[in-house]
UniProtKB/TrEMBL annotation:
<dbReference type="Pfam" id="PF10861">
    <property type="entry name" value="DUF2784"/>
</dbReference>
<keyword id="KW-0472">Membrane</keyword>
<keyword id="KW-0812">Transmembrane</keyword>
<dbReference type="InterPro" id="IPR021218">
    <property type="entry name" value="DUF2784"/>
</dbReference>
<protein>
    <recommendedName>
        <fullName>DUF2784 domain-containing protein</fullName>
    </recommendedName>
</protein>
<feature type="transmembrane region" description="Helical">
    <location>
        <begin position="97"/>
        <end position="116"/>
    </location>
</feature>
<keyword id="KW-1133">Transmembrane helix</keyword>
């Protein structure tokens, strides 16, 4: 039971990381120091997608599920609603390149907006 709870918790952490890597730049509007956390997270997300190395969170989650006695991803609330978001069926290497580009473009747009906003308030 503890391994299953840990795997579900890791899946939630993984989703939070994905959302932070994609949209965390918006937090810089609130706290500019968030850039110190967000830029490395976004860079890691882009690297993982482009290098096709896989995220260590995925491997750790699968290991926890195996230790829990699951033969893969058994259905539950977390798996049913969150797994398709993080591990969609269409996730191929070309799709990962597109996802990396999306993360990069969204973040360039967000940081451009943050920079312009900060610049206009200092003028």
């Amino acid at each position: 039971m503890i391994y299953r709870v840990a795997a579900d918790g890791l899946l939630l952490l993984h989703l939070a990381f994905v959302l932070f890597a994609l949209l965390g730049g918006l937090l810089c509007l609130w706290r500019p120091s968030m850039m110190l956390w967000h830029l490395p997270a976004a860079a890691w997300a882009i690297f993982v997608e482009i290098a096709d190395r896989g995220c260590p969170l995925t491997r750790w989650e699968q290991l926890l599920r195996l230790r829990a006695g699951d033969a893969g991803y058994s259905e539950g609330f977390v798996e049913h609603y969150l797994m398709p978001l993080i591990y969609p069926d269409w996730l191929t290497l070309p799709a990962q390149y597109v996802l990396a580009a999306v993360v990069l473009l969204v973040n360039v747009g967000i940081y451009g907006w943050v920079w312009l906003r900060r610049r206009s308030t200092h003028l």
